[in-house]
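Structure, all two chains, one model.
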Amino acid sequence: MSNLTSLTLKAALTGLADKSFSSVELTQAHIEAVAAAKPLNAYVLETPDKALDMAAASDARRAKGQAGALDGAPLGIKDLFCTEGVRTTACSNILGNFVPTYESTITANLWRDGAVMLGKLNLDEFAMGSSNETSAFGPVVNPWRAQGSDAKLTPGGSSGGSATAVAADLCLGATATDTGGSIRQPAAFTGTVGIKPTYGRCSRWGVVAFASSLDQAGPIAKTVEDAAILLKSMSGHDAKDSTSLDIAVPDFPAFVGKSVKGLRIGIPKEYRVDGMPAEIEQLWEKGIAWLKDAGCEIVEVSLPHTKYALPAYYIVAPAEASSNLARYDGMRYGLRVEGANLTETYENTRAAGFGTEVKRRIMIGTYVLSAGYYDAYYVKALKVRRRIADDFDQAFQKVDALLTPTAPSAAFALGENADDPVAMYLNDIFTVTVNLAGLPGMSIPAGVDHKGLPLGLQLIGKALDEGTLFSLGGAIEKAADFRAKPSRWW
Amino acid sequence: MTDTSKQIEGRTGPWEIVLGLEIHAQVASKAKLFSGAAVGFGAGPNEQVSLVDAAMPGMLPVINRFCVEQAVKTGLGLKAQINLRSSFDRKNYFYPDLPQGYQISQFKDPVVGEGEVIVEHDDGSTFTVRIERLHLEQDAGKSLHDQDPNATYVDLNRAGTALMEIVSKPDMRSSAEAAAYVKKVRTILVYLGTCDGDMEKGNLRADVNVSVCRPGAYEKFRETGDFSHLGTRCEIKNVNSYRYIQQAIEYEARRQIEILEDGGSITQETRLFDPTKLETRSMRSKEEAHDYRYFPDPDLLPLILDPAWVKRIEESLPELPDAKKARLQTQYGLSAYDAGVLITEQARADFFEEAAKGRDAKLTSNWVTNELAARLTAAGQDIGDSPLKPADIAEMVQLIEEDVISSKIAKDVFDRMWAGEGGARAIVEKQGLQQVSDTGALEAMIDKLIAANPGQAAAVKEKPQAIGWFVGQLMKETGGKANPGTVNQLLKAKLGID
């Protein structure tokens, strides 16, 4: 069967259950697609032998009637998740050829449910970036191209590899992480679905840390239903992560397709930012109309501290990162560049091991935590963070979910913002608030711009109310009827 | 009132010392503070290191509930406030024995707040040291600089082990007071079972803050709480014996006084004590001090304690040294000094109480704190391992009480017991060590003695003290078993003196 890779996860699972094809066949098709997609640079490590072994084991389980929820489904894993015996780099030179002796809780959950690993996916170094250009393995290329152009576009970041792999049918779904928008913005740029669940829904154990109080894993998938299936497997309490929530995991797929009639949808007025392209504005209006048609009530709400979110985020996240990345010191694993003494060895190792963006954030973070600056920056940012969470609390007194654009533009060209970190940071303007407040946020492909590039809408839910997001996401998906696919140019 | 006994005379007049201590006590726990790795002495290098301790990518800390319980227990033992909400912060600095690049500690909101410790001086009088706070933190690993001339080896077994840092207010005024305070805190921790108190292994060590000031300044500080009345302090790091604590303080105070009297000023700095040269030397000045960039650890939630849980811990506390001392005094009629000696070790007090059942308490206390303690010390044994049990001492004390043996003979009996010759009663019978109180036999001996030594008998009538010669002769004749009271009584009657 030639187009096994174009199946949705749900369709593939049905096919596997029907014995229409085996996991080995399905996996083999994906291995070939991955091998043929080198120009996209989505995978930094392919594990075809492991994939086929896992697929064969899955077929054996299925033959015995012991198939799990994801049994036999080939997935891609963002290279921020530690995988036992498989090189894990966070796409940084400082980790070099680090091979963990342990498996992250989330990937362990996926393997428990029978999933198959195709390999490790590219990302911005330590998940710091919005274009996947900071990766030590080079940028991922978006499978989408503007009409009439061969220019290479960014898939967004940091989960650029995950988004591209899903959009280009190089896996049935992928793990990703989101600290300030790293699931949702790449999903929007590639016409895929991405959800960042409530902080604490997915265990952070075994995921290389960027900013601990903001990091949260989630899936990037082809459809809302696929995202629900994946998130259900990934979620769950983990005693090894003190911030993991000890709360039962709802049956997320059951929410997809549920009526959204009577739900109240908030439209935050502060998200109408200056200079937002008209197309984004129009798409947003379309989204509002779709939900209205589906029986939702539309309510304008105010999130007055939104304008402070990005600056606060770029204090809190680098502060935590500067401390989280201190462990990469060349002493126990990863890169080590010797110097004449200890201090020089630290300096040489970290100078050689970290890229420019990571260094920038370590320096910002170190600065804002320094004596004399701590109160003016870090403490103030925490106060802003509290206000932003309060804004959402207020809004959710009145509404069930919020609808916003995911990103202020469609995918831009690789290199376009490379010299302007602030312009790059503005990509996260609609997404960081959700991380600061720990809420669930989902991006759904909703249309294309005048150049034929995908655009996404973001749904923001109450804490632990991913279910409502899946219902609303399903409604938007149905109304938008987004069927565009990138042409296979690679 | 200025207590002049604590003053140090300088060239320009008297000075006083002000001391505050930070005691680092390793929490008695089978597992580390955040990793679940085992804690134990004697494991090979890096054998007790988990993925979390080695700070592998993606590893996260999870608080060890037992260590929190130990800290709360200690706080209660220090009569301190238990903070039902506390939190953990990261203290950031680079060092090879600190794999995370930060130490998890409690900077802003410690689990235990203010408390106090009553400390005994050598003469039995007491003074109070106020506790500022107690917090939980991770210990670092060990850097070994002496294994190779060109390399430093790192042993992470200790990395992540739970420490309690107990911070006092500047309430100690002499090196002896500082040592007595550490001794008392150690006793309390050992009673509570929250730290083994082993200073040789570094499981209990102190950072000593030393400053000097002119008489009267300290009192002003205590009245106002204004530290500017005190001198600039230097912190002497990681001192791990009572003797070193005293030596370091004495050297440091002298050093500071000399600088001040020469017209200089003290630089706030961290210093190290060198026990071979008996001096302190600068480690780093305030300017060179690290900026630790403390901030709340985002991997850990605030530590919220259930008041009922704290109450249960409080109710399960053992009898603490101060209470035990008071009870030994009232229940057994012991002096403050004797009770104080007994309670320095819980096992010693327990031994005493077991031995003293139905016996003369003062006599029992003397045997436990003098003869037995000396033997155990000489043998390098703890009272818990004592070959002589409370019942053995009680049996011997009973023989003394019943006048079967004298205290002098008892020493011989004790030696034989220690040598493993059996119980006191059996030894006395076997060796025929019973006192001779049989007046008939003694009278016959006395008559014979007087008859044989008429000159001596006459002399005693002139000079009654000379009776001692007769006593000595009789003791010699009976092998020391004559009851001295009976002998004296009979001699006086026979020799006609009173």
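The longest helix of chain B spans residues 242-261.
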